[in-house]
Write a structure and sequence with these properties.
Layout lengths: L1 E5 L17 E3 L5 E6 H6 L3 E3 L10 E5 L10 E4 L7 E2 L9 E4 L26 H13 L6 E3 L17 E5 L12 H9 L1 H4 L1 E6 L2 E3 L13 E2 L12
Antiparallel strand pairs: 1-10, 1-11, 2-3, 3-5, 4-5, 6-8, 7-8, 9-10, 11-12, 12-13
Amino acid sequence: MVHIRALFLSAISAPLAFAALNEPCYGSGGIAGVCVTTSTCSASGGTTINGACPADASDVKCCSKASCANGSSGNCRWSSDCAGTLVSNQCPGPAQMKCCSSSATGFGGYSAPTIPTAGTSSGACKAVAVNGASAVVAAWPGRVRQIYCTRACTCPGTSDHCCGKAIDFMCSDAGGVPTISGRQIAEWVMNNRASLNVKYIIWGQRIWSPTVDSVTAWTSWRSMEDRGDVTQNHW
């Protein structure tokens, strides 16, 4: 899930992250990985890299497995991101990490999501968020499955969703299903921050704000705390 808050307001600071075990990460070369202990990774035949599961215990690292037994292109990835067939029990991490038969990226392929309607009443999705959502969907056809704007809370509340000024872009096959496909969208939004009137962006347990941060790759965005699951950690 990529979360975007539109409309200029005060900046946000965030503590260092503790990426939860079995959550996504980007392995060597940007391929799909999972944060697991080094012993778990070794037992699954994977390879670890340092620094991709920041602030975790020293023995928790990003584990990836570029080759597995599912055709000539078999590779381990999150099932939501596989364009081919899937085989279980060959990859490190939770059950959603499987051996994919395809070397294709496999991100998306969704029908165009419903764009929220803008309104002016309390709790309605505001025009700045609707316009931003429309721009992202147009720029990334097939990559966003569903869009959320408001929540059942009174503005200002504890979330920007309470005021209809934030958009969540769901980029995987279902709620609670992990994916690593959102990085490209998140960085595109950063690069188009002025036209989208962006306050901040959250993707993959990292946050970026134009009033605080320089334009940089997602890997250099500020880390956020572990919120407990792949949805809350915006994977």
